[in-house]
Amino acid sequence: MPKKVDHEARREEISEALWRIASTRGLEGASLRDVAAEAGISLGRLQHYFRGKDEMLLFALRYINRLADQRIRERIEALPGEPSPRAVLRACLSGMLPLDDKSRIGVLVGAAYFARAIHDEGLRAEAKEGIPKLRAFFADQLRAAAERGELAPDRATDDEAMLLISLVDGLSAYVLLDVHTPEQAVRLLDLHLGNLFGGGEGAEVAG
To answer: Where would I find the HTH tetR-type domain in this sequence (predicted)?
Structure first.
């Protein structure tokens, strides 16, 4: 068992080296040799953990998605009391924005994967896999809000959930491009949630 845990940890360290490259110059120019140098290991050592670039990219994509899920779960768990559906949605959505150095790197790496996935069938399938689940979760929260009388029933739809995902994707891109500051992105997110739910809670800036 210790050997298996160590093997996984080394694969994660190599993935983090790949992310550092992806966050500054994308994935297209990142060779196995480049990643090995960034990780401070030999090419032969890297190939002990990954047989090729495709395998490394898939593992790294799954790893960064797992960390993002964990970060959002922690935001939800930190909410006081029994959080409302709106509070849960806000925690999730703000957690998807590049609001600090760690989340900015995550979004930059995600953008690099997106650019490559357009022409890479394996990465495209992996990148798309989580979207229906996220849309379903958001739609469930919207329906729960409607049942509590906090949202008009005709707004509790899969389409409305997809619009929330699309809003955050757009805001994230504009933060990366310095069109918006992180604070402005959160303000616009809160503005949309206020219009969706009719004002009320959730106007503070997310950290």
So the answer is: 8-68
